[in-house]
Write a structure and sequence with these properties.
With 323 residues, this protein is mainly alpha-helical. Helices cover 33% and strands 0% of the residues. It starts with a helix and ends with a helix.
Amino acid sequence: MDSEYSQAKYSQKEALYHSTKQEPLGRSYVRGHVLPGKTTENDFKFGKASVSSTEAAKPLLYPTVTEDDQQYKAQYIKSHKSYAPGEQKQRDYNWKIDMGTHKFGVGVGSQTAMNGASFGVTGAMAQCEPPRITSKKTEDFKNTHDQLGRVRNLGHGSKESHPGVYGKASLPNSKVWDARSCIEGDYTYDEQAPDADLGKSHTPGFRNITAESRAFGVPTVRSDIPKYATRSIADNQNYGDDVNAQYLLYPPQFAAMGLEDTAFTGSLPKEEVISIFRESGCCDGLSEAEIEAVWETAKQDTRGSVSVRAFQAALSDLMEARR
């Protein structure tokens, strides 16, 4: 996120463009037209009032049907095949039967379909052949061929002659270890605990045995020793003032220029603060009296401790008041 100083500097540069003057952010487009005074009235409206009509729009879009459309139904059926839902199609055949009561497929005075004529259709579709006596060897050979929807018979006998499950049981009893037992193990809690002498030396004369209950070694952050006034570049010791991981992942905006956030919030002398803003061009067009007024305003807001950010805020208030 840009600082207030950089935003003010950017706004000052953008103010020179013609589009910024005529299309300010958050305002309507300024075309420079001089409108009459009546346009500033609250009840002023552009345009001309329309003549009120007594007819509604719905009857014009959906007119009411007053004529009987049954006379055109036959015409629509012939041209568009426009039958009503559930309506039986009439092809105007010259039947010698009553279409309202007659049922096709049922014989007169009996329940046999088509008076027995359908039996011929059934026989033609089934094509049942009379049984023929052949040798068992021939039938067994036919059964070994591929049959639609069935598993191929390889000639190993009937299914009843084979056992239900093949193979040998993997575990004859529960005491034999399998692959799962080898992977997961079968250790007790005491066997899974670390060794009692873990981290201790077994060599005589090198054992660190003490009755003290303290932590050995030196801390990472050496806040127990004083920091040198002038730190050497070879001194990589952390005295508690080093930056954390967040600073390395999200450095300040001007960290690449060697400026920290404290450089903008720290107290600076009056001559140094004014010289910074004059060199940057932010004080162009301001008189000495106005610069002095900005300094006094920033001094009152910060109770005498003026920083770059405080002077920038006071300068921005002055710029807004001059617009």
